Amino acid sequence: MNDLWNGIQQAIWLTLTLDADLVEISLRSLRVTLSALFVSCLIALPLAAILAVRRFKYRRLIISTLNALMGLPPVVVGLIVYILLSRSGPFGLILSVMMVAGLLLISETSIPSSLKLLAACDPE
Fold first, then answer.
1. Phi/psi-derived region of residue 72, left when phi > 0, alpha when psi is between -120 and 50, beta in every other case
2. Spatial CA neighbour of 47 closest among 64, 63, 69, 35
3. Which of 10, 36, 40, 60 pairs as cysteine with 113 (C-beta 3.0–4.6 A)?
4. Is residue 15 predicted with pLDDT exceeding 80?
5. What whole-number distance in Å separates Cα of residue 15 and Cα of residue 40?
6. Gyration radius of the chain's alpha carbons
């Protein structure tokens, strides 16, 4: 219990003193998250507008697929992206994107994109 209390005290101290490493990590996380949000908006909002306004043959199938994808935990999405983009994966040799920030951006983009697409659809 003493170790837990010491850890909490140290976390509070690092936060209050604006530790340089903590600030750098926080800013990097914020940058990746905002980049993912921007990219997902660029992808999802035009597609959501088309999905909401147009009626076409496979519209209900697309909406059902997006609903199913929303049930995936972010860890599973990250694992799938990692498998697809790793050097031994199907896109690894083509893309060579094995950077942590790049993988985070791709996996964080996929989840909000499906949310934005579904938000524009009326459940017919």
1. beta
2. 63
3. 40
4. yes
5. 31
6. 19
